[in-house]
Every structure is written in structure tokens, then in C-alpha cells.
Design goal:
The protein has 198 residues and is mainly α. It has one domain. It contains 9 helices and no strands. Helix 1 runs antiparallel to helix 2 and helix 7 runs antiparallel to helix 8. The protein is globular, with a radius of gyration of 17 Å. 39% of the residues are buried.
């Protein structure tokens, strides 16, 4: 069995994306995967007979791909877990205050509605997904700590199935809801022990 030290303390410049105190390896992993995911999503979109994004909408799609698909990895980092689930420290401002409040941070993620509106998705389904995201994070936070990871996983699988079978966000956006739930429900809302590099 592998072991690694668990440490809840951090220091350094504020980094709400990878978590303050993220190692070089953690940053490379988060930004590297975000870049790969964005590239795949953009290439797949442009390979479609009728791309979802053209002109300035390509930049919008790239932004959301980087933020949501990349955020699914970043929010699983030990540095993010440490940053999100500790008290606000001296010198941390509004971005840290938002990141450390799971409900508030989730509430500002109106991303499904924005992407559906601008990229010809299903606006009603997007609104339902936004509400389901809020309900899912609330549900996870109401669970005892030892059940949160499993509950979050179950809700994320339900979102994946629901997006594919019941409430599609739109053609070319099949990746969005599963990645959003991985980022916010499975990643951000679940407190886990933050391991340090051994």
C-alpha cells in the first residue's frame, strides 16, 4: 500500500485555478489536460458537417472546454482540495472566498445556460441542468463526510446518463454536462485528504 503525507496547510500566491501551493507537476497536469481536452473538442467540432461553433463562437467553445473539461481535472488535485476545504486565510480576497464556498461557487456556474444560448443548444434543458447541478451539490454537502465521494459519483453517473438519454444539452455539446458534474459535484464539493508529494 502506498502512503503519502496529508497536509492541510498551504502558502504562496493565490491560485484559485490549481489551488494555492500547487506543485509544478499539479499545474502541468491540470493545464496540460485542459489544453488536450480543448484541442480534442475543437477538432471534433470543426470535423462535424455543421460545426456548433464558427467565428467568435469558436473562442467561446474553447473557453468553456478549457474551463469545464480542464476544471474536472484541476478540481481533483490535492492542491485544490486543500485550498477549497480550508478556512479563508489572511490576504485571500473575493476569488478565494467564492472558491471556498461550494454553493456560491456552484451558483455562479450558469455555464449550461450560456453555452446553450450561444451555441444553439436546448435552453430549457440547460436551465434544468443548472437546477440539477445546484440540487446535486446541495445533496452532496448534506451527506455525512464518509458518504460524499460515493454520492457525488452516483449523481455524476446519473448526469452522464441523463444528458445522453433524457435531457441532451445539444448536438456537439455531449461532453459538457458530464464534465461539469465531474468538476463541480465530484471535484469541488467533495472534501478529501490532500496528499503531499512524498
Amino acid at each position: 500500500m502506498q502512503t503519502a503525507p496529508i497536509n492541510w496547510t498551504y502558502s504562496g500566491g493565490i491560485d484559485p485555478l490549481c489551488g494555492t501551493g500547487a506543485t509544478v507537476a499539479e499545474r502541468v497536469l491540470a493545464y496540460g489536460m485542459a489544453t488536450i481536452f480543448t484541442g480534442i473538442i475543437l477538432v471534433a467540432d470543426q470535423a462535424r458537417n455543421v460545426p456548433v461553433a464558427e467565428g467568435w463562437k469558436i473562442a467561446l467553445l474553447a473557453f468553456f472546454a478549457f474551463d469545464i473539461a480542464g476544471g474536472a481535472v484541476a478540481n481533483m488535485l490535492n492542491s485544490c482540495k486543500r485550498f477549497y476545504h480550508t478556512h479563508l486565510q489572511q490576504g485571500e480576497g473575493l476569488s478565494a472566498r467564492l472558491a471556498k464556498n461550494p454553493m456560491l461557487f456552484t451558483a455562479i456556474h450558469v455555464h449550461p445556460i450560456i453555452i446553450a444560448y450561444f451555441l444553439n443548444g436546448h435552453l430549457l434543458n440547460a436551465t434544468i441542468w443548472y437546477a440539477l447541478l445546484l440540487v446535486s451539490v446541495t445533496t452532496v454537502l448534506l451527506m455525512p463526510l464518509y458518504l460524499r465521494r460515493a454520492s457525488a459519483t452516483g449523481l455524476t453517473v446519473l448526469a452522464l446518463l441523463g444528458d445522453q438519454l433524457l435531457l441532451p444539452l445539444g448536438d456537439g455539446l455531449e461532453w459538457f454536462i458530464p464534465c461539469l458534474f465531474m468538476k463541480m459535484v465530484l471535484g469541488h464539493a467533495v472534501q478529501e485528504e490532500p496528499y503531499r508529494a512524498g
